[in-house]
Write a structure and sequence with these properties.
The structure is a single chain. Helix 4 packs across helix 10, helix 6 packs across helix 7 and helix 8 packs across helix 9. The termini are far apart. By secondary structure, this protein is an all-alpha fold.
């Protein structure tokens, strides 16, 4: 048997040993020991990589449906059965990547990144909202706040555009968005279309518009991803 053939047989032997958990043969040729050792390392790395990918796939499957029941429940409660709850999950993904322990530099907390003062104001009306750090009540309070913002724009914005104004207000407050509407109207643009708000945003005083526009776009992107999963 040629040296190359012996080496190939050693590699196959090592790979099978690693995958099947069998002991290596004691008769491995001394000249092939370094190659066998390298093959062992590569085989183990390959096996660990495959196991890691499998674990990641399982975790991804779990993460894909994380908190869905809560988002469904409170979307239905405050927006009705016909409203697509995935908008709010997309918002939670944009806010915190669904991390219940997330905290911002300014003190916003939880999945929906609520300020403690905002949560407390909501909790005074809902006795069951016990803690801002509880994922359920954080999500519930966030969607309830969304509901109030949704009604703010009810008379001005059609339903197919209103979620963007709602989310923009969640991020920036209603004031900057109202000023943007006035700027759009002054520019003879439709103040009921979010693309008009995007156009006039740089002209609106006292507004960190890049953050808000990016936030709304991120929610739209997350929503499209969630729709493709189902």
């Amino acid at each position: 048997m040629t040296r190359r053939a012996r080496w190939k047989r050693s590699v196959l032997h090592v790979t099978l040993a690693v995958l099947l958990g069998a002991p290596l043969a004691a008769q491995t040729a001394p000249a092939d020991k370094s190659r066998v050792a390298d093959s062992t390392v590569h085989a183990r790395r390959g096996l660990l990589g495959a196991l890691h990918k499998a674990d990641s796939a399982r975790a991804s499957g779990r993460d894909a449906s994380r908190y869905d029941d809560i988002f469904r429940k409170y979307s239905k409660r405050w927006f009705g059965a016909n409203f697509d709850w995935r908008f709010f999950k997309a918002q939670g993904m944009a806010e915190s990547e669904l991390n219940p322990t997330a905290r911002s530099a300014v003190g916003a907390r939880g999945i929906m990144q609520l300020m403690p003062s905002t949560f407390q104001a909501i909790a005074t009306k809902r006795a069951e909202f016990r803690s801002i750090d509880d994922p359920e009540w954080n999500i519930a309070a966030g969607i309830m706040h969304d509901r109030w913002l949704w009604t703010v724009w009810q008379k001005r914005i059609p339903d197919d555009e209103r979620h963007r104004f709602m989310f923009g207000s969640y991020n920036a407050g209603e004031g900057p968005i109202l000023r943007a509407c006035l700027a759009a109207r002054s520019a003879r643009l439709s103040d009921a279309e979010w693309r008009s708000i995007e156009q006039v945003a740089p002209k609106v005083d006292r507004w960190r518009y890049r953050e808000t526009l990016g936030y709304v776009k991120k929610i739209d992107g997350n929503y499209e991803k969630l729709k493709r999963r189902r």
